[in-house]
Amino acid sequence: MTSPDIHVLPAHVARLIAAGEVVSRPLDVVRELVDNALDAGATRLEVEVDGGGLRLVRVRDNGGGIPAGSVGLAPLRHATSKLSPQARSVEGVTTLGFRGEALWAAAQAGELHVVSRPAAQVGACEVLAQGEDVQVARASAPAGTTVTVRNLFARLPGRLRTQAPAASEMREVTALLGRYVLHHPGLHWRLTVDGEVRLTHAPSDHRGAVASVYGPLSANRVLAVSGEGVRGVVSRPELTRARRDRMHVSVNGRPVLAPPELERAVIEGFGELLPAGVAPLCVLDVTVAPEDHNPNVHPAKQVVALADLPGVAARVRAAVAAALSAHPLARALPELRPASEPAPAPGHAAFPALTLLGVYQELYLLAQGEGDLWVVDAHAAHERALFEHLTRTLGAGPPAELPEPELLHLTPEQLARLHERGPELQGWGLTLEDFGAGLARLRTLPAALAPLNVPRLHEQIVECALGDGPDPRRDVLARLACAPALKAGMLDLGRGQAVLDALSACEHPWACPHGRPTVLRLGERDLAHAFGRRGARDVPRGRDAAPTGGPGVSGS
């Protein structure tokens, strides 16, 4: 191939290539117009989509409107009211939109129609824009702004042919509007698709938004989160998913793809309450100083850069942990009532005093407390008690010297982690030295771990300490707490009472270190309903008593 000459494309060809850099699909139009409506201070937003968004996208709001003197500038490229002309204004963006490209891109890719009126202005203005042709006229309309984009990509056949099917696009538009509802729950929202209302929401709090998007059963199983720069809700430990698709984060009001560090912070906030491999539902609004984030690193502004991501992650982790610690987290026994009727909770988070009633299958304890029947997994409960005992005593005394240092084979990954974590391990009494040739020399053990009667004690400690988990200390103690915990066939009434006493003294009694529940509870009213009883026994007590923590709080 010969070297081609370089030439500058004529303007009309360049426009055909560039049109849609901001608007490449109907979803982009919806996002940009909703951002504009929110920036205008709207409290009511109505979104209408026809033909998968290719035929029509309309967003109507009751926001501040565009003054008559500026409305003709709205469809021009880089015309915006959200940034000052000074370059430094880009470093402190306080709005969702700011580039001044949304309406221009919509006019390049389709037919743009804007009708707007500020509340104090007499009469509205109407703008028709297609390509570079802009026409302004007077009109009559209520206060606010209505933006309509028709025949998207009709003049760009190549782009039109590559659009997703209408059903797929509408699924993503509905999901996008759901995210805006979750992060802006105090507004009126309505989405209409091909004349059918798909999503409505009346002003409420984050729990009400979860009810609008995911249904009342999910809303009844979320807890309020409130911390430094972090607000929202997080689900109770029993409401989890195998994927992280319901972990939603906004930064300064902008729904974003959550950085992995923030998703990990949420999961770490649960501690041992979540089993491995699952994720909770959460809606978290993160607030940072405008100069501490950059929303201009992604064409669709779905990714933001944070100046202090570790600090934000620490605040998220602390807020989630505080929300969970403030509520009772005992899970319900399998429902005896219809599953659609949620069970309310006791109004405090303290673990109750339990009276042992008996032992079932030499593994489960039946106990009574707060008027309810409790079933305790003795192994999980004993494991939790041992884990907290080891956590308290680790590093309390001088490390135990091995009579003879032990040589252990390590993989290359384990050797790399040894060099990274060596000082940390030695800080809690584990002295492990690189001996060369893929070997490590174990010289001391933490005094709390040395006397444990656990098979392959040294190998298990080193394996967990040099594993790929983010918290080697917790991994070691969780592994060592499991082995000596009571197993099936080892339980009697005497040991059962000791397990209950130890569990009641735990700081986090609701789950074992691996995330399995330690206790389940069943209210007497459930039993009465299941047996068809009515009358004096059909009285709300214990788990069935009216909650004191506010409407919609579930204790099951």
Structural description of this entry:
This protein is an alpha+beta fold and 556 residues long. It folds into three domains: 11-84 and 94-164, Histidine kinase-like ATPase, C-terminal domain (Heat Shock Protein 90), CATH 3.30.565.10; 204-326, Ribosomal Protein S5, domain 2, CATH 3.30.230; 355-505, MutL, C-terminal domain, regulatory subdomain (Ribosomal Protein S8, Chain: A, domain 1). Helix content is 30%, strand content 24%. It has 15 helices and 25 strands. It has helices at residues 11-18, 26-39, 102-109, 157-161, 166-183, 206-214, 216-219, 260-270, 309-325, 378-393, 412-427, 457-465, 472-482, 493-504, 524-530, and strands spanning 44-50, 56-61, 111-117, 124-130, 133-139, 144-150, 188-193, 196-201, 222-227, 230-235, 240-241, 247-251, 254-256, 279-280, 282-286, 293-294, 305-306, 331-332, 355-360, 364-369, 372-377, 400-409, 431-436, 439-445, 519-523. The chain has an eight-stranded mixed sheet with strand order 5-4-3-6-2-1-7-8. Strands 9-10-15-12-13 form a five-stranded mixed sheet, with helices on both faces. Strands 18-25-21-20-19 form a five-stranded mixed sheet. Helix 5 packs antiparallel against helix 6, helix 10 (378-393) packs across helix 13 and helix 10 (378-393) packs across helix 14 (493-504). The radius of gyration is 30 Å and the shape is elongated. The model is unreliable at 16-20, 336-348 and 546-556 (pLDDT under 50).
